[in-house]
């Protein structure tokens, strides 16, 4: 792995290219060309430049932290028998001149787990398209599904890469290959892999979210409260009012009264349990 224009003051110098010397396979006599890679020392994080924004410095720091992961992935790819089926593209995420979307910012905060590579039969990605950038970032940072959990297109080998990678909490149902081809809405990766993703321990936040989701019996209780309020307010009369604004205010006040009644009911029932 080599950096290009490290000292040029670029806010996003995490653009990386696969050095040709590092990607050479073993010669005919069986000797591997590892002298160049072994002679390099680990990159050190330079200090922040005066003209560099905090956001750019943070992005540069993430690259230095991920450099070892990318280098290891490239070195391991030499041992794969199908290494010639893949192509490593020089990428910059996000490229200069492209506006970063909220999805890119969320994915950028995640650690890089693998280097981007595509099938040699596919085209080189257009790094000016937002969905292409997001797809590559998902591939670098997401969870790789097994053969059983892959989406239909990935199982048929129609993706730009051989791996079906997902980030459910940010992207949703789509995998990296379907995102790249603009078919994210029709991807069924999450439906196939929802029970195959690594399980994590449920915390208090998960339990609190489950407790706040209304259930069928909760709506039945609300209807009973409304019925009680209708009976108590029937004595006030039924004077018709054609003013829409006044009617809307009354409806809002009725909803607030139902909410207060539910809160008081909870306070009364809590000590008894």
TrEMBL record:
InterPro entries documented for this protein: DUF3716
Domain of life: Eukaryota
Compositional bias per record (Low complexity), positions renumbered to this chain: 32-41
Region Disordered: start-end pairs: 21-56
Protein name: Uncharacterized protein
Organism in which the protein naturally occurs: Eutypa lata (strain UCR-EL1) (Grapevine dieback disease fungus)
Higher taxonomy: Eukaryota, Fungi, Dikarya, Ascomycota, Pezizomycotina
């Amino acid at each position: 792995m080599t950096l290009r224009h490290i000292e040029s003051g670029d806010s996003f110098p995490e653009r990386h290219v696969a050095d040709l010397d590092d990607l050479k396979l073993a010669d005919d006599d069986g000797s591997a060309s590892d002298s160049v890679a072994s002679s390099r020392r680990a990159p050190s994080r330079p200090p922040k430049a005066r003209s560099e924004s905090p956001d750019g410095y943070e992005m540069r720091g993430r690259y230095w932290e991920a450099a070892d992961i990318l280098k290891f992935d490239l070195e391991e790819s030499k041992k794969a028998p199908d290494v010639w089926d893949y192509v490593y593209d020089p990428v910059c995420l996000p490229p200069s001149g492209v506006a970063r979307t909220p999805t890119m910012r969320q994915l950028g905060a995640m650690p890089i787990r693998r280097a981007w590579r595509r099938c040699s039969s596919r085209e080189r990605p257009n790094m000016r398209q937002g969905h292409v950038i997001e797809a590559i970032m998902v591939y670098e940072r997401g969870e790789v599904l097994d053969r059983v959990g892959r989406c239909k297109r990935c199982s048929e080998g129609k993706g730009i890469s051989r791996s079906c990678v997902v980030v459910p909490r940010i992207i949703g149902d789509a995998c990296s290959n379907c995102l790249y081809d603009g078919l994210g809405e029709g991807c069924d990766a999450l439906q196939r892999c929802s029970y195959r993703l690594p399980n994590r321990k449920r915390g208090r936040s998960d339990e609190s979210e489950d407790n706040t989701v209304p259930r069928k019996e909760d709506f039945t209780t609300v209807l009973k409260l409304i019925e009680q309020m209708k009976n108590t307010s029937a004595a006030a009369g039924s004077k018709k009012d054609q003013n829409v604004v006044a009617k809307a205010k009354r409806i809002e006040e009725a909803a607030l009264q139902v909410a207060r009644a539910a809160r008081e009911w909870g306070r009364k029932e809590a000590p008894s349990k």
